[in-house]
Amino acid sequence: MNAVVVADALGHAYGDVVALHHVSVEIPPGRVGLVGANGAGKTTLIKILLGILDPTLGSVLVLGSDPQEDAIAVRARIGYMPESDCLPLSQTAADFMVYAAELAGIPAKAARQRASDVLTLVGLHEERFRQLGEFSTGMKQRAKLAQAIVHDPDLVLLDEPTAGLDPEGRDEMLDLIARLGGFGINVITSSHVLTDIERTCDWVVMLDAGSVLREGPLSQLLDTDTVEIEMFDDPTPIAEALSHAGATVTVTHRTIAVRVDDDDAYDLIRDTLARSGTGVRRMGTRAQTLEDVFLHSEEAAAR
Question: pTM to 2 decimals?
Answer without folding.
Answer: 0.82
